[in-house]
From TrEMBL:
The lineage of its organism: Bacteria, Bacillati, Actinomycetota, Actinomycetes, Kitasatosporales. Pfam families: Pept_tRNA_hydro. Keywords: Cytoplasm, Hydrolase, RNA-binding, tRNA-binding. It comes from Kitasatospora paracochleata. It is found in: Cytoplasm. Gene3D superfamilies: Peptidyl-tRNA hydrolase. The record marks D97 as: Stabilizes the basic form of H active site to accept a proton. This is Peptidyl-tRNA hydrolase. It catalyses: an N-acyl-L-alpha-aminoacyl-tRNA + H2O = an N-acyl-L-amino acid + a tRNA + H(+).
């Protein structure tokens, strides 16, 4: 019998519709897409305003989700999915883009403030806690003269696109390690790559 401790929700953040596909702000979608691809799963529409795929990692049931409200409203579908699947908050991993780390760096942590990310702020408010796991996918800072909004809603540069598959695989590896071996092991593998830990 599957218990709550055996179930995970991996929620990748992004904006729905084809207009935003492949943009930097949709890095969370890209990571869960990679996990679904690895495990031969396909996303389907869910009544809780999400697209969902279910996979198994190390004998544990994992729900992959892409909330289909805009990113700053991610909290409602994430909270609804936790309730529907009976998953505790400490088995929630949110995958999001992050301007505080350079492109090519990703970090895993539990808790913390939203640091200006409206998706994380929405989830904190909906869950009334920050005590969930976050995988932050570094984008770096916008170039001088470029606003944050236009930067995150733009496509990755051709140079970034060459590296992107490797980064997505590294993040997918970290998620699988998190589920099977715990946060400490996953952090040591993921946080040890790229720039110094912040």
């Amino acid at each position: 019998m599957t218990t709550a401790e055996d179930r995970w929700l991996i929620a990748g953040l992004g904006n729905p519709t084809r207009w935003f596909a492949g943009t930097r702000h949709n890095a969370g979608f890209l990571v869960v897409d990679r996990l679904a691809e690895r495990h031969g799963a396909r996303f389907r529409r869910h009544g809780l305003r999400s697209r969902v795929a279910e996979i198994e990692i190390g004998g544990r049931q994992v729900v992959l989700a892409k909330p289909q409200l805009f990113i700053n409203l991610s909290g409602r579908p994430v909270a609804a999915l936790l309730r529907r699947h009976g998953i505790p908050v400490d088995r929630l991993l949110v995958v999001q883009d992050d301007l505080d780390f350079p492109f090519g760096v990703a970090r895993l942590k539990r808790g913390g403030g939203p640091a200006g990310h409206n998706g994380a702020r929405s989830i904190n408010a909906a869950l009334r806690t920050r005590d969930y796991l976050r995988l932050r996918f570094g984008l770096g800072r916008p170039p001088k003269g470029t606003t944050v909004g236009s930067f995150v809603l733009a496509a990755f540069t051709p140079e970034e696109q060459q590296t992107l598959p490797t980064l997505l695989d590294r993040c997918a590896d970290a998620v699988e390690t998190l589920v099977t071996a715990g946060l400490g092991r996953a952090q040591s593998e993921l946080n040890g790559a790229g720039a110094p830990r912040r």
